[in-house]
Amino acid sequence: MPRKNGLQKVLVIGSGPIVIGQAAEFDYAGTQACQALKEEGIEVVLVNSNPATIMTDAHMAARVYLEPLNPESVEEIIKKEKPQGMLATLGGQVGLNMAMTLAKNGVLEREGVSLLGTSLQAIAKAEDRELFKETMKEIGEPVPESDIVGSVEEALVFAEQIGYPIIVRPGFTLGGTGGGVAEDAEQLREIAGRGLKYSMNRQLLIEKSVAGWKEIEFEVMRDANDNCITICSMENIDPVGIHTGDSIVVAPTQTLSDPDFQLLRNSALKIIRALGIEGGCNIQFALDPHSDQYYVIEVNPRVSRSSALASKATGYPIAKVTTKIALGYTLDEIPNSVTGTTSACFEPAVDYVVVKVPRWPFDKFKAARRTLGSQMKATGEVMALGRTFSSALLKAIHSLEMSFSSLMVPDFQKLSWPELLAKLQAADDERIFIIAECFRRRVPMEQIHRITGIDLFFLDNIANLVNLEYFLAQKKEWQKEDWLLAKKSGLSDSELACLRGVTEEEIRQARKALGIEPVYRMVDTCAGETEAATPYYYSSYGEENELKTASDRPKVVVLGSGPIRIGQGIEFDYCSVHSSWAIKEKGMEAIVINNNPETVSTDPDTSDKLFFEPLTLENVLDVLEAEKPLGVVVQFGGQTAINLAKPLAERGIRILGTSVEDIDRAEDRERFDAVLEELGIPRPKG
């Protein structure tokens, strides 16, 4: 299909400030949208209020408005700029709600602005709880027993009819905001009252809880010609009851039988067609682990945090393709930007396992309630790729940058039996480490499964890692096959050093002496069937090396900033992206190392080469030894990258820009004080 006629200027709505439930994923999506529009020669006008994003960079659009994202401001911009179209499905819930409000107020019709992509009717069908429920019934898709209410009293009456526990889901909200699971009337009164305040249309879905069932997601894409593909299937390790943003998520699904997988895949395609969504959409299911019964939980008629994860997990640029579809193109007309030869109509194929682990703020807020539920608490997330679930899981844990770097947390080893079992009962951010500690104390797997509802497949993998720790700790001499097993399973040099009672550097030298070094596998959307134009890489052991290191240009490595957390946000991604662009402008090869799936720096188009790896000394050194760059830029990755400057320099790596000595003089409080003393600069006494 040709591009829509008369489309010369498009207004893109951003997502505003980063809040819990809405992080860098919408900067990534919005940036892809702007680039896709400019590729088509369309004049882009952008409105957003977040100054820390790449999206609000001056060259991202013909004009950037750093204005409040409220209807009055956007209406004034529309009147001034007179765009023919508006793109709102890439700005999170903020962008979606803005489109609905402007349409309801008659602004879009009055000013002649078309909403591009998914229609208002389709958005309403997915977001309005009553319309969604009716649509699912019409197409024969099962939804949990539920009712739509507009007051606390109505919620209480319905809850008495269907019984507790129940789930409260406010309409038109993000990240489960205002919702929750109520075990009794008192909890329901509190949650429903809060949910009504957050819901744009003061509407609540009161739903019979299916807590304990498997939670499965499908990322789906559809164009105006009704071509549909599933991009990625994802499985939450936690059962239903914990928001997917707060769950450890695995892609592709690991525990579904083929009939169950096909059942849910067919349902996902049926749903996106019935809703009439054009572009990407996320569909969440609850699946009974003991039968083939399932329920449709909800649909996001826009790109989401799961969309960013699915994009980076598969190499399929969901936001970019969604934008092209909004312009009128069909999937078979849009090229696959990773391969450069296939089209966006091909479903991605993966030959690896992806694990996402959320990053929570509880290390900053010690007194905060750690319990997880249907309202998201994570500020960001990390993603890791491996050939097995266990290797990807451990690599993700290494990426979190916590005070520990494995499944063994010293504080939990001190817990008494009653304390340990009490923590196992609690669904919180520490549960996976508690499960590992339970296995160390020989708690039966069936008991852990019964308490947590976590599938035996995942528990068995965790138990195997604990058994491997024990085996290595007990063995006096490690053979080459022991080393290889440890590294293939995902154990870091740091963990092995603890088990061996030696330094990490001694472990590194010992394994290298045995020839045990990582190789790098490629993400190419097609499991190696087609040559990749913009591939990216992850490390593995005992495999064929797919990394192409030959280059006639000098290389420079940029260290990213890892997951978004309190005190280290999207501003460092902005800096890392600009660093990469500047390196490319100078004719050098820009290489990025990062592990945050939400960011622009982990878009393969940003650099010449991307490594999805933990930002630890071990993993960074491995990449540097493979690539042999001219040097490393650490100034733009926040404290994460700065902390690596000194140990890298001590191992002969050239740090570009500010010297390690000068970094240390600024970072070390005593040395900085000495500099101020030397320069005669006054400062507070201390």
Report on the structure:
The termini are far apart. Strand 1, helix 1 (25-39) and strand 2 (43-48) form a beta-alpha-beta unit. The protein has a seven-stranded antiparallel β-sheet, sandwiched between helices. With 686 residues, the protein is of the alpha/beta class. 39% of the residues lie in helices and 17% in strands. Helix 24 crosses helix 25 (669-679). The chain is globular and about 70 Å long.
According to DSSP, the number of beta strands is 23
Uncertain runs: none
Please, how many helices?
A: 25
Helix content: 25-40%
Q: What percentage of the residues does DSSP assign to strands (E)?
A: 15-25%
Radius of gyration: 25 Å
Based on secondary structure, the structural category is alpha/beta
Strand order of the largest sheet: 14-13-10-11-12-15-16
Overall 3D form = globular
| Major β-sheet profile | 7 strands, antiparallel
Q: Report how far the terminal alpha carbons are from each other.
A: 69 Å
The residue-averaged pLDDT reads: 90
